[in-house]
Protein: DUF3347 domain-containing protein
Amino acid sequence: MKTIKRSIRTVALVATMILTVSCKDANKNEAPSSASNEVMQENMDSSKNMAMNNSQNAMAEAILKDYFNLKDALVGDENDKAKMLGGTLAKSLGNLDKSTYSESQQKELTDIIEDATEHAEHISESDIKHQREHFKILSKDITVMVSITGTATKLYEQFCPMYDGGTAWLSTKKEVRNPYYGSSMLKCGKVQREIN
Structure:
């Protein structure tokens, strides 16, 4: 039940972020709500803290590196490599120091890390079809984590409309390489947005 609640919160946060970004141009003349201002200010403050704390930045970047290695293994249909990299990612997630973030961000990061770790561990024990199912939720968690921690790397949120009703993932490259279908539909998808 806790995982379901966390997943619902994560989906709600991601949906809010996507809606905010997609509606940004349409609402340029409108004043943002105070709740929206608070969230944006909290995330900007977090970004400033990140710039001042290279160790923290390195931990978040290590998580992203492990996530991208896992994604690439799934793109290459490499079940055994994905198993190993799922375990590596689970360890990296456990190393994230949340102490430099606000209290609400720490709580959100704790929930995200707990959920993401669970999915990374499942990936380390599963066949490739099941790995891809867990990677879908893991990708949502990592996307929300990046909205809090920030990143120095330019990322592309990519989207495949065919997998499980539509699914997104992050990539460091603009060229689409689909981790959900691998070699069978390697280029299925599109860049949904750029991050950073």
Observations:
- The first helix runs from residue 2 to 22.
- Helices lie at 2-22, 34-52, 54-75, 79-94, 103-123, 128-149.
- The CA atoms of residues 68 and 171 lie 7 Å apart.
